[in-house]
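#struct-help
A.M.: can someone run this one for me? Single chain, 427 residues.
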Amino acid sequence: MWGLRINQKLGPSQKSLRSADHRRSSLFLGFLALCCLLEGSALCQSASSSVASADGGSTQHDPLLASAYDHFYNMDYDRAVPEFERVLERHPNDPAVVNHLLSAVLMRELYRMGAMNSGEYANDSFIGQAHRPADPKAKEHIKQLVARAESLEEQELKANPNNVIAIYDRGVTRAQFSLYTALVERAWFSALRNAVGARHDHERVLELDPHYIDAKLVVGAHYYVMGSLPWSAKAAVALVGLNGSKEKGLAYLREVASSGGENAVDARVVLSLFLRRERRFDEARVLMHGLAEQYPRNYLFSLEEANLYRSSGHMQEAAEEYRKVWQNGREGKYGNLHYEIAAWGLGELLRSQKDYAGAVASYELVSQVSQPDPETLQKANLAAGEMYDLLQKRDLAVKKYETVVAENGSTPPADKARQYMKEAYRE
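D.P.: on it. Structure tokens below:
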């Protein structure tokens, strides 16, 4: 679903590549595998899918879908998953419904892993590197759903190779499997192959039906990413038949975002990410504000709005938005979601303004949550210790550093804490 920090870290196989060309290729793979998988993290399904169920019903008219969508986009995956399962029971032969369920199961697992709550949202948005290993049962479930969707899609394409809906659905399955292989398996080359396959499928859809607007999400994201590459990388990918244009990519995404189709929400998220990269913060913020109003229980949308305020230099508005997210979380509006990242964001903002007392107070808020995200808590405790050192409160600083090490002694924050226990932090 939402959009996503562009993580340029490379997998082990890529780290072994030594030449400059290989380094550029590896950077491209990491960049493409995540940027172009944005559509795979959401319910990018065909609004026109209408495969009949055993009782003669039509998937697109199933009343439970609206409820499932709402729960999904509000990050209530534990309610969305069983609702999509019930829809699939009614329409077992519709690959689009399998893709719906696949999205919900995948996003629930990514959130549980910490891949959607990395504490790095203030950089480039929502999805970062996973903090916890995937559940083997969830991985197997995801793979089974991918295989089921692919089997249904291939059956339809065997009967009619130009079946637009089946080609579109196959592209969705490939996009979501790309997301899985990138963020769960960390298998970048496999993710890239599936991402490119998704693009080719949706380009074929547009060839067969130029008015199939939902297909422009995948293609538009690819166009933008390809258009953003340095000239040497552009030349390399052009050799394998890929091309891009930032302007065309943004135009496609705007078209999907304003279409009112099932991909409109996803397109607004992707478009916001790319506008952030173009430093068009105000335009991106308008999109996030609209999403936050539409899905008020999804704290990530409001949090990103705060981040965009901060990036554009509107510090007071950013602080107010962080505080609003925190207060909404304290009032139970986000359930068990990790809204404490708002306190971290506020602390970082105040720290940048050299309001060390205000920053440490914000960092301390993270520990007030009953079950905070472990990585966010550890980073907040380290930052609080640094602030206490700057405020000349050495005893409090050392206690914070000791807490960081006690929480998990094998992390980079713990290494820094041990260092600062020996020598006080200084900017």
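A.M.: thanks! The longest helix spans residues 136-159.
D.P.: also worth noting: Residues 378 and 407 are 7 Å apart (CA to CA).
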